[in-house]
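Below: protein 1.
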Amino acid sequence: MANISKVYLLNTPLEDDMKNTLYFANASAQQSYMQNNILKSYTNVSYQRDTSIFRCPAHIDTIRNCNYIMFQNTAYSNKWFYGFIKKMTYIDDGRTDIEFAIDPLQTFMFDITVKPSFVEREHTNDDTVGSNVLPENVELGDYVSTDGVSKWLWDKDSTYFAIAVSKKANGLEGVVYQPAGSKLPDGLYYFGVKNVDSIKTIAKAYDKSKAADAIYAVFVVPSYCFSESGFGNVSFDVGSGSLVSVPVNPAPNMSFTSDQNISVPSGMAGGYSPRNQKLKTFPYRYMQASNNSGEVTTYHYEDFTSSTMTFQLAYSLCTGGSARVYPQDYKGRANNWDEGINYGKLPVGSWQTDPYVNWLTQNGVNMAVDTALDLATIAGGVASGTGAGVVSGLSGIANTLTQVYEHKLEPPMTKGNICNGDVNYTNSMTCIHFNMMSIKPQYARIVDDFFDMFGYATHRVKTPNTAHRQNWWYTKTIDCNITGNVPNDYLNEIKQAYNSGITFWRNPSNFLNYSVSNGIV
């Protein structure tokens, strides 16, 4: 009989569902691997059809461990056909009928061209952080905070007091006043003091200057508003009604800016270090900024231009303070004001004025004149011997003394914000707090394993990636475009394999082993 066909029975890891297949760089490498796995050889058999049964001249028990077939009809072509052994049927001790189906992926691997197609997902050839951010349909669980840092912490140790007044007071010439510096008219002057006692002193000075109502507001301001150089406290001599010492109170800055840098964390909750860099992006981890007053903003690490995130605070002097923190070099904008977060308000204080001192100062001259007139009336009455003049003079003096006594009994008057308690300020939480958020380690491992097996969502029309990973890569398409000199039924099977999702394995010894390294090559 003419030697018209070679048939070899093999054992390989390949299965007919074609969810996984082997990748070979060329036909020689493919043939070499297959021949190294031959268990039975038949080199002098009749023409072998590609959709038929091979009548194997062997007992079924001697070939049961064979699951793959390769054959070549040497009289007509040198092409090798590869196929899955589907079923073995015992005929007699010298014959077993082997039913097989062609493996179109291996048989026509070097006869097809995969054209640009809609790739639903695949293993990427660029896994730098931020290069893959499409949403994934995976469970994330709850978030936990891995770390936190407070910036621009404004508490009693890092704040002073600003006093807003409508006019200057006598005796406070040494105080540096700052006229309103905003573009909105407010008609106020500002100066700063360092402690509460100084506020009391200023209030007394304004009482003495007949200008208690000129004090408009007392409020906390960040130390950024002042220079520490020469900054002192104000004291007041109650007896003389004058300032004992006037500090070099620097005029507050009407506005200022301040930068703070925050480093992007390297890992995730529980110290988990992901293999797939997509886990280092949102929504698997991110940074959350809170002003501790109800406003929260989310920032994505991958949208900053470097591993150091820079935020800038812009402040404008006003009652309660007006400040906003915003990211720099974020989402393509040097100063991303729109994605900033407002600073929580600083406390507005209260102060006391002394109605007695204020009244006495305002009426001191009039009372002196009235008293002098009353004394003159008494003297005139004595000289003339008329009792009416004496009585009238004494009555006027008594009335004056009564007014002094009544005003002296008036308690100090409190002005400003009476309800000036602030839980954030008193608990040192007037700041912007940045929380590093992450999914829990157990969820991170689940997602990481999923990405290991099936790559990332792609959703692009492109040529699928090939031979770009150390050990395996996954490809799933929709209506894949493939051309080649291949019978149409086999071509459709290949397309269906791509559309269903297929993993190519580079090293047969690592077939289906997802524990080995799979870096980009």
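Below: protein 2.
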Amino acid sequence: MKRAVIYTRVSTDEQANYGFSLRHQLNHILNYCRLNKIEVIRHFEDDHSAKTFDRPEYQKLEQYIKANKKEIDYLIFTKWDRFSRNTEGALSKLRLYKNIGVSLIAIDQTVDLNIPENKFMLNFYLTNSEVENEKISIRTKEGSRRARVEGCWTGPAPYGYTNVRVEEKSTLAPNANAPFVIKIFEMLATGLYTTEYIRRKLSRDGFKLKKQAVLNLVKNLTYTGKILVKPYLKDEAEIVKGLHPALISEDLFNRVQDILTPRNRLRGKPKIQHDEFPLRGHLQCRICGGNLTGSASTSRNKDKHYYYHCQKGCKERFKAVDANSDFERLLRHLDFNNEIADLYKLTIKDIFSERKGNKEVQIAKLLEEINDKTKLLENVQDRYYADKIDEDEYRNAKHRYQCIIREKQAEVEELKNQDSDTLKHFNYCISFLSNIAKYYRESDIQVKSKMIGSIFSEKLTYSENKYRTTDANKFFLLFDTVKADLGIDKSKKADISVGLSTKAPEAGLEPATL
């Protein structure tokens, strides 16, 4: 008695759309084998597309036949499209099975391959299946593109969303992971963190995405409520408003893209920063002028002690805890106190009062220009309706006056909103400058480094509990002068509470110090 392996296949789409049944295929093949006295020794069942042979059960089937080729005479299925919808791939497999002595039988499309002319019929069956598969693919692509143009979502949901249907249209709804997405964009927009740092930080709260997945996430326009429709044939790519809600604003998305562009990326390998060394990268050796680094040493009782020291072998070395503490004292000296804050507020108030008068004059002038152009536009319309000018003259004049009116209206709105935005930023700055030391103390290591670089444009040297620098932010120098002139700071010139020493630098540093 001949022996056979039988194979049934149906894709999910075929099952849903056309009613193909695995059970029907199986019963049909078993009846054929019973009538032809063929023993079935193994059955493999697949639910994947036949576009390729990269199907889990088919792979097992092929391995089984190769391992037991002496015991198998046939591989049986119902039709050739159950075996494959790829002509080239199917012919390759036919040669494989012929070489190991196994014949393929499609019981509903029988072809005796021992007769050369029958290969024309085989090619017809295989090609017909491949053509049908391509037609299905084209219909799927066209349908998907039409749906996307209408704002529907047709693929797997991006992280932070779930696939849903609203009024029979496929779209997205935010899920429990949406807050992670928002947090990632907000942290990246500050320019202070890398995607990898954010990923590791959020992983403590349950965020689970790999590095490349996060990089793909932050470039996904879908989170702004928009959908990118890819080009297809003669149709160009376009961006449409989706039916799904946005998780972030377009402004936030664009700010993140600006930060991620190559021209804004830091070159070279990023330095590993440790909380014990916030000043690393901002200190230089007072002996040779080289950069100081930080390292730890372990005492006999296994306690760790942290030190800043020269990278070039100089004897410059001091405890990190003392240097860090003295730097915070220096920042407390730079804090705005109430007198300074009130002085700046009064100054800004005077400036705004003066600007308010000028702004009102500018707005009145712009409104007058808008009114004049509106009258001219109405006059042009009247002349056109009275047949005193032709259509081209009317269109040109209308376009010109409407553009001028829109420009002037935009200038009016900008002037109206200008002061409110400025005041908002000013109040934030006053709050920050009044609590520099507090913000520094509560920030993470990356923000601390940014703050140090913003205040001191050049490297610092540290000696005898005091800091020296070749240069500092001109704003803070001016602020320090104002405090002294007003008699607000009564500290002695080189007192530790002041921090920035006015003594000449040690050997090796020529520029003047503060």
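Residues 161-264 form a domain with the Hect, E3 ligase catalytic domain fold fold (CATH 3.90.1750.20).
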